[in-house]
What does this fold into?
Amino acid sequence: MPARRQPATPARILTAAANHIERVGLYQGDHLWQPGRMGGAAPCTVLHAWERGVRVARPRWSAHREQWDVFRQALADSLVVLSDHVNGRAVPSLRWRKLRLAEDAYRRTVLWCWGDAPERTTDEAAAMIRAAAGRCLSDADHVTVGCSAP
It folds into this structure.
């Protein structure tokens, strides 16, 4: 019988994202396509690191519905916590409504822009993601839907 995966939490997603970007490095610029350097070893953007963290926390396809509900909420909460942290405060909904964007699309853009700032380093990106993870309660407190980030 396969080992049971840990429940998905915002902190777990963000910690996995920080680990990934530390391992592969931060990529900046418009030309992300690099044949021969793609996959789990190519430098990545902050947004891509977050997506890798999401993959780590995703339950198995055969998991019960409750695990998927918790995962979906952890996914949304981790994006909110990370983009709010990058922004320095809660991202106001007026921003994405004025641009007629979906909330998650705008928040992903915030992550992309932050990581693409000139002189941004891998260490800075990893530290920022870890600091955002620290805003969430411990993993033990995330067994139900929702993140209680301050």
Summary: The chain is about 55% helix and 0% strand.
